[in-house]
Amino acid sequence: MRHILLIVITLLFLVGCSQEVQQPIQESTELPLEVEFSNPNPKTHHILIDYTMKPSTLNINKGDSVVWLNTHDSYSNLIFSEFDIIIPGKTIIEKTFLSVGEYYYTAKETGNSGIVRVN
């Protein structure tokens, strides 16, 4: 009985795989409503984390990256509303911003804050 059931399932699988569904090609003369803009010359910006953020406000373009440089021996925890970045002591972290908006952040240890504005 198991062999017959296995043969039936195998045959159903093979029949299902052998049928090819072809969709008609539809031509459209409409342009997309929104064209994705890509930054042809992305730049990298730097923020120094000392006892303050230097600079505390940074204006960048969509597609640009920000590098945070932690000069402390201990870690620094940057808290954004969308994400957290934990930066070990004496290291750097880089983030590329792909969405337009304002990104406020606070260094948990010192309470210093900053903003990255993406145009």
Short note summarizing the structure:
With 119 residues, this protein is mainly beta. It has one helix and nine strands, in the order αβββββββββ.
3D architecture notes:
The chain is mainly beta and 119 residues long. It has a domain at 44-118: Cupredoxins -  blue copper proteins (Immunoglobulin-like, Sandwich). 14% of the residues lie in helices and 38% in strands. The chain has one helix and nine strands; from the N terminus they run αβββββββββ. It has a five-stranded mixed beta sheet, with no helix packed on it. A four-stranded mixed beta sheet has the order 2-1-4-7, with no helix packed on it. The protein is elongated. The N and C termini lie far apart (68 Å).
CATH architecture of the domain at 44-118, by name, is Sandwich
Named CATH topology of the domain at 44-118: Immunoglobulin-like
Based on DSSP secondary structure assignment, what is the total number of beta strands? 9
Mean pLDDT: 76
Largest sheet: 5 strands, mixed
Q: What spatial order of strands do you see in the largest sheet?
A: 3-9-8-5-6
Radius of gyration: 26 Å
CATH class of the domain at 44-118: Mainly Beta
Give the end-to-end Cα distance, rounded to a whole number of Å: 68 Å
Helix content: 10-25%
- Provide the β-strand percentage band: 35-45%
- The string of secondary-structure elements, in order, is HEEEEEEEEE
- Give the overall form: elongated
- Contiguous low-pLDDT stretches (5 residues minimum) are 31-35
- Our count of helices gives 1
Specify the CATH homologous superfamily of the domain at 44-118. Answer: Cupredoxins -  blue copper proteins
Structural class: mainly beta
